[in-house]
Amino acid sequence: MPAETRRKKRLDRSIKVRSEGLYGLASWREMTYLACPRVILIAGLLVLPLVLDMYWQRVLCAAGIYALLALSFDFLAHFVGLVCLGGAMFIGFGGYISGSLNEYMGWAPIVTIPIATVAGAFLSTLVLVPCLRLRGIYFAIVSFMLPLFAVYVIIALSLFGSTEGLSALATFPNSWVEQYLILVVVLVALFSVRRLVSEDIGLILRSIKDNDQAVKASGISITIYRIKAVFIASLIGCFAGAYLCHLYGWVGLSLFAMDFSILPIAATVLGGMGSLVGAVLGAFILTPLSEALRGFGQLRVVLYCLVLLCFILYKPEGLMNVLERKYHQFEKWEKV
Amino acid sequence: MAEEPILHVEKLSKSFGGVQAVFDVGFDLNHGEILGVIGPNGAGKTTLVNLISGFVTPDRGEVMFKGEEITRKPPHRIANLGLARTFQVMRPYHSLPAYKNLIVPLNSPRVRRTRGGKLGDRDSVAIDLLEEVGFERDARVPYKTAGSLPLGYLKRLELARCMALRPEVILCDEIFSGLSMSEISSLIPLLEKLKMEGVTLMMIEHRLRELFRLADRVMVMSFGSKIAEGIAAEVMEEPRVKEAYLGKEKTG
């Protein structure tokens, strides 16, 4: 029986290079080994606008928005233990604040986007704080309902152009600004969050997720840390919203659409929970995929779901975690 | 008049549904002593720790720490005042090195305050603390992942987590349980050292012989109430204590 005479052997690459200490800088070879994946990611994303045509450039911008949402989702879900389906709320708050500042005050996007990012994050945090006591599925449900709630508030009070929305908002000067703004922000956000989770605050957040009792007994207020985490996640999400409103020069109720809450989850599952890079990568794969499948009409959703289903069933750890393992380990067949 | 007790508990009561877990328990913890709390399973000892440390809010009664009422304060506030506790079931952060588990208490407001806002190199502070509780630095034990450590080390890790706060009182919830005799004998000098440094300890324990080596006084609980308090040898002779542990003596 050939299957039993051979087995796959996995060997870790040199431990030295994989440790987080300074050992990694011992030689050029090891430095390249460490830097390589990062350089490929950064260079890859920054080159994309140069090789894509007009239509796909737009898709790239949309993918960037989803990437930010996925990053924010993965951070909250995996490192804080809050499954937040409020992506649409972040987009809506960021978008509406930026849009109305532009419409009513006449401010340029360069001013409105930062303001909307911070103000939106404050607002989102404020709304989510009462829900922080909830755990697991209950937090998910409430955060999922909040965008719907916002939609009906806008309709009922006829705010911000009600169902029509606000149109003819300022857009970006050209497509290069459009693309590189979102790509740079995605990269900055990604590397900042990765850094954050390995700092003390990240450690505390992960401990809260693991064993909140021991954290309380260690004299740390878990509410304060959770609020900080939600604020950081909201910042990322609200920037995406503010950017989106100036990308299309329009805000409307569809900013609160379910897509913004659901697609980031799919992207995170595809890319690999908890790797952060995986979430971003997942968004950059799923958004174009969803566009490419447009030709199939209604069948598109079926194919899309099939891709997801296969991943959940056959590679539940996600793309990024598989890639990472392959990169860090030798695999070879050996005789038993 | 005697010195004011560091911890004063009065008429503390808590019931869960119909079960009276703790009933009218009152006692004093004097500065620098070790008080043992013993009693059969289900006597309410752990609930008592939970009530004092703020993890469970009492139905009635009050807890005074250094003359300040802490009865309904949240647990992290109480810990920051200098009243730490260990857990019977420890769930450390498994995938992290042992010393990283101490980063959490080292970031507490209490530690920040006592270090004048500057935390310095927390990793080395954490490793020093672990060495103090018996993690052999030469064998690189502090760097091992918490999940790979045997129970004896986990108990020490839990104690180190409390010590990181530089507390005045530590409530130890069954720190000896599940340990071998040799592991216990290596823990005892550590607790004695803490006492020498002026830390007041309240120890809940089932291992009576080991406890009596340490404790200045013992308090016996049964069915949620305090039934005796005093010097260990005397307390164990009381009929009510014997009854709680061994059952009623047959008469005749």
How would you sum up this structure, described in words?
The complex is a heterodimer of chains A (336) and B (252). Chain A has helices spanning 2-5, 15-18, 28-51, 54-80, 87-105, 109-128, 136-156, 175-198, 200-210, 212-217, 222-248, 259-271, 277-292, 299-314, 319-328; strands at residues 6-12, 166-167, 250-251, 329-335. Helix content of chain A is 72%, strand content 5%. Chain A has a domain at 55-258. The model of chain A has no long low-confidence stretch (mean pLDDT 83). In chain A, helix 3 packs antiparallel against helix 8 (175-198) and helix 5 crosses helix 6. Chain A is globular, with a radius of gyration of 22 Å. In chain A, the strands form 2 sheets. In chain A, strands 1-4 form a two-stranded antiparallel ribbon. In chain A, strands 2-3 form a two-stranded antiparallel sheet. Chain A is built from 15 helices and 4 strands. Chain A has 336 residues and is mainly alpha-helical. Chain B is α/β, with parallel strands linked by helices and 252 residues long. Chain B has one domain (7-246): P-loop containing nucleotide triphosphate hydrolases (Rossmann fold, 3-Layer(aba) Sandwich). Chain B has helices at 45-52, 75-81, 103-106, 109-114, 122-132, 151-163, 181-196, 208-214, 232-237, 239-246, and strands at 7-16, 19-29, 34-38, 60-65, 68-69, 83-85, 169-173, 200-204, 217-222, 225-230. In chain B, strand 9 (217-222) and strand 10 form a beta hairpin. Chain B is globular. Chain B starts with 6 loop residues before the first strand and ends in a 6-residue tail after the last helix. Chains A and B meet through helix 9 and helix 10 of A and helix 2, helix 3 and helix 4 of B.
